[in-house]
């Protein structure tokens, strides 16, 4: 398995875990991380959306859709700064920064893997 696909798989599993937690166990899952207990439907809707996104990741890995990998790597770089703002404004507990660091780290891993794979592919075509 290519490193870029592995990085996407790791992130997809992470999203699947978040999906299950938010969709089926929202109260204990969210309070475990220090967030206020959810009393409305939004957390389950979020879990459902995460499940759909997880499906997209799975299909992209299956099809080796490296362009999709690239798009997600760009987009996931926004998460850490956004989460940091939420924490600094007092909207979220500091644990959110750890989530953002993991998510941005996965984005960096994907981007670097794609770059390395492109270089390897170019060197094979010119050899």
N-to-C SSE series? HHHHHH
**Radius of gyration, CA atoms, in whole angstroms:** 17 Å
- Name the poorly predicted regions: none
Class based on secondary structure composition and strand pairing = mainly alpha
Could you explain how this protein is built, in words?
This protein has 127 residues and is mostly helical. The chain contains six helices and no strands. It has helices spanning 3-24, 26-32, 42-63, 66-76, 79-88, 95-125. The chain starts with a helix and ends with a helix. The chain is 81% helix and 0% strand. α1 packs antiparallel against α3, α1 (3-24) runs antiparallel to α6 and α5 (79-88) runs antiparallel to α6.
Annotation keywords:
elongated; 6 helices
Outline:
By secondary structure, this protein is mainly alpha-helical. The chain has six helices and no strands.
């Amino acid at each position: 398995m290519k490193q870029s696909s592995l990085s996407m798989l790791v992130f997809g599993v992470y999203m699947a875990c978040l999906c299950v937690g938010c969709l089926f166990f929202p109260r204990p899952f969210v309070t475990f991380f220090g967030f206020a207990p959810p009393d409305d439907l939004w957390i389950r809707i979020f879990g459902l959306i995460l499940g759909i996104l997880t499906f997209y990741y799975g299909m992209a890995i299956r099809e080796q859709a490296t362009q999709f990998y690239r798009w997600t790597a760009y987009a996931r770089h926004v998460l850490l700064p956004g989460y940091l703002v939420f924490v600094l404004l007092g909207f979220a507990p500091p644990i959110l920064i750890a989530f953002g660091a993991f998510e941005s780290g996965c984005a960096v891993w994907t981007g670097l893997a794609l770059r390395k794979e492109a270089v390897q592919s170019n060197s094979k075509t010119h050899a």
